[in-house]
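can u pls check wat happens w/ nicotinamide-adenine-dinucleotide
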Amino acid sequence: MSQPVSICVIGSGYVGLVAAACFAEMGHRVLCVDNDEAKVKTLCEGGVPIFEKHLPELLARHRMGGIDFTVDLASAVEQCEVVFIAVGTPQGDSGAADLSFVEAVVSEIARSISGYKVIVEKSTVPVYTNEWISRVLQRHGVAPSSFDVVSNPEFLREGTAVVDFLHPDRIVVGANSERAAQVMRRVYAPLTEGTYYAQPDALQGACSASRPAPLVVTSAQSAELIKHASNAFLALKISFINAVANLAEAVDGDIQDIAAGMGLDTRIGPRFLRAGLGYGGSCFPKDVAAFRWVAQQRGVEFQLLDEIRKINERQKEIFFNKVLSALWTLRGKRLAALGLAYKGDTDDIRESPAIDMIKRLLASGALVTAYDPAAMERAREVLPASDRMGYASGVFEAARDADAVLILTDWKEFANIDLVRLNQEVRFPIVIDGRNLYQPQVMHDHGFTYVSVGRPAIYQAQQGKPRSLAI
Ligand SMILES: NC(=O)c1ccc[n+]([C@@H]2O[C@H](COP(=O)([O-])OP(=O)(O)OC[C@H]3O[C@@H](n4cnc5c(N)ncnc54)[C@H](O)[C@@H]3O)[C@@H](O)[C@H]2O)c1
């Protein structure tokens, strides 16, 4: 049985809170820190501030022993051997990551280091941030022998974050010292040695006792680059298939068939080849921008990164134009918006293409009624309810008397709508699907005009096919 490690996780957001709960699940003693007092109070009182599958059950399981929550960073750092930094690294004005939250945390850590600590970058940061962290610690008088800085990027996906964390494709540890690498091996030993998977109540996933999680040890710089390069590559796949989707539309091809045909090639693979409204979320947009900034700073030509972003931006415009083509004008039109989160299975609306689309529709004079299974509370903060912006408690309420239904997020619930009832609720049976959740023929058979991405639009005969607008 591997030895428990005392771990402090600073930042209790989508990454920090999941990491903290999972470390406790792996048998470690965890102190979870945040400077948001309301969030810490919620956590201390048994609440869960984010929507994430399995997180409530893990927190409930470990609240009585494995995990504690606090705003007292100094005391938490003092008590722990390993300190994970999991605060936000949003996009700054230049495209570079804004590292001010990381720097603030590092300055606070510096004041609390007594014995040897391993400081771990869990946040996504540009290459050489590990060196900056060392410099800041030393500037604050911390002896170099008292710490090592390690990069341990996180690859979890919101919506499946807990299972992703406990059953990772790989764990990357970027350490420039063997001492720190050994500590990190101890942290992840339950997953890399498979002892966690042998437990009867272990959460099930792709790894097992006989096929434990692989751990890759690299230099800190390489680990930092692995994270940015991975996210940029995934964003590239999405933008690539979206560009192909636009070409498919121009020649009456079908992007679903094309993606299936491409994805069967094991060198390409089927994942992240789903055409749609474009990527969003708190990672891909900012990480592509930050990676581009890193390349620029080093004098390395990497224009492909620009193209990824441009295609993604254009994808939203193309969808907006589809709405215009289907409805002609938007002023006074009643639109049902299905989805607010940037993807299904999360309440996260950061950089959500759905929110962006609704803002454009409202700016064009449309009346929007939105529904999302998890993200409505967060959405209300950026899209307050008004006489033109409403929120419904379900799909049919949103669709009632609508001139068109727009599918903006790929929630499973939206892929399984009772289409007969939907047709009865709407004013005009028009569905504009930014996530390709339906087969065009099925929509046609249910009486809908159906416009999707990278596939021929289907128009009901009596409604006629509008000539496309030259926008
Ligand atoms: N969200 C994801 O899917 C994901 C996946 C992989 C990596 N990442 C990276 O992980 C990092 C965190 O992302 P997130 O989505 O969890 O962010 P988040 O905004 O959900 O959480 C950050 C938390 O840090 C807290 N915080 C900020 N300053 C603090 C301070 N000085 N002391 C204590 N707490 C402080 C905030 O209150 C917040 O709760 C980012 O760098 C992100 O790029 C995110």
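The CA atoms of residues 3 and 186 lie 7 Å apart.
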